[in-house]
Write a structure and sequence with these properties.
Chain lengths: 133, 170
């Protein structure tokens, strides 16, 4: 799965997510990616989130929306991302990752899987990674 | 405010052999999206550009390089959301197109619906001028290998909590 979250100069938030799903899936299986609130969510008033990982768990937990609602309650983007991903993993025993931008451009990155590749650009500098910490 | 973009290239048990490709492709995607923002493009334009970049890259499970279903076919899905109007466009069960995210964008902008699937999504895409490509052109060797590993295991990977298989998760 791949995804992107952006906040433009006008303060608008947008999110895109695309995937081939999971290897060996049944013909006709639909995962979290096209289900709004699970794989993707954006709200100019709060934040945007794109998720990746075990689709059936992500969609049951409505992972993207859960992160956005935590931010709405006052939690910062990174803490909200970590808290929701870990909450899903604890509850459903499968892993996931998510990237988040708050409406102010605060970054959240967290994954409970072994690895997740991510990158963002701030002030002309690229930050990127794939390992924990 | 200063525009900003962040991307991901998928989570899971990414083997060492795939790390360099993932990092290179992820950086290329974020630069593609950032360039759009620098030119005054919208957040929607930027996220579409970033995802298009990764859909073309076999290092990612989207577009070319997507994993395979039990019939050995690429069957993709994508979604895009506009936070200004809470408007969405999404497609699922879509085959034979390189850029599902751009079709999802068209669903957002040109359709009264939010999610189109299968044959209907294909018909919509063709009506909007998207061209199909041969299905085998979306299939990478890595995706074939991942399906064979899956068939050998006989059960779905559950990331590192279960079996270790790079094809196990999105």
């Amino acid at each position: 799965t791949v995804g992107a979250v952006a906040v433009d100069a006008n303060g608008h938030v947008a999110v895109a997510t695309s995937t081939g799903g999971m290897s060996g899936k049944a013909v006709g299986r639909i995962g979290d990616t096209p289900q709004i609130g699970s794989g993707t969510y954006a709200d100019d008033n709060i934040a945007g989130v794109s998720t990746t990982g075990h689709g059936e768990s992500i969609l049951k937990y409505c992972l993207a929306h859960s992160i956005v609602k935590l931010i709405e309650s006052g939690v910062d983007a990174n803490t909200a991302t970590k808290k929701s991903v870990l909450g899903m993993t604890k509850r459903l025993n499968n892993t996931a990752g998510a990237i988040t931008l708050s409406k102010n451009g605060d970054v959240g990155v967290y994954f409970s899987s072994n690895r997740m590749s991510w990158a963002y650009v701030r002030d002309g500098k690229i930050y990127y990674g794939i390992e924990h910490d | 405010m200063k525009p900003i973009i962040i991307v991901h290239g998928g989570a899971g048990d990414i083997p060492d052999s795939r790390v360099t490709g993932k990092l290179t492709g992820t950086k290329a995607a974020v630069i593609a999206g950032h360039d759009v923002l620098l030119k005054g493009g919208s957040a929607l334009d930027a996220v579409e550009a970033a995802v298009v970049s990764m859909e073309k890259d076999e290092n990612f499970n989207a577009g070319y390089g997507s994993v395979l279903n039990l019939d050995g076919e690429v069957e993709m899905e994508a979604s895009i959301m506009d936070g200004a109007r809470l408007d969405v466009g999404a497609v699922t069960l879509i085959k034979d197109f390189l850029h599902p995210i751009s079709i999802a964008r068209k669903v957002l902008s040109d359709s009264p619906h939010s999610l189109l699937g299968g044959e209907g999504a294909k018909r919509f895409a063709l009506q909007k001028g998207f061209e199909t490509i041969p299905p085998e052109s979306l299939i990478s060797q890595n995706a074939k290998d991942a399906l064979q590993k899956f068939l050998k295991h006989g059960e779905f990977g559950r990331t590192e909590i279960g079996i270790k298989d790079e094809g196990g998760v999105g």
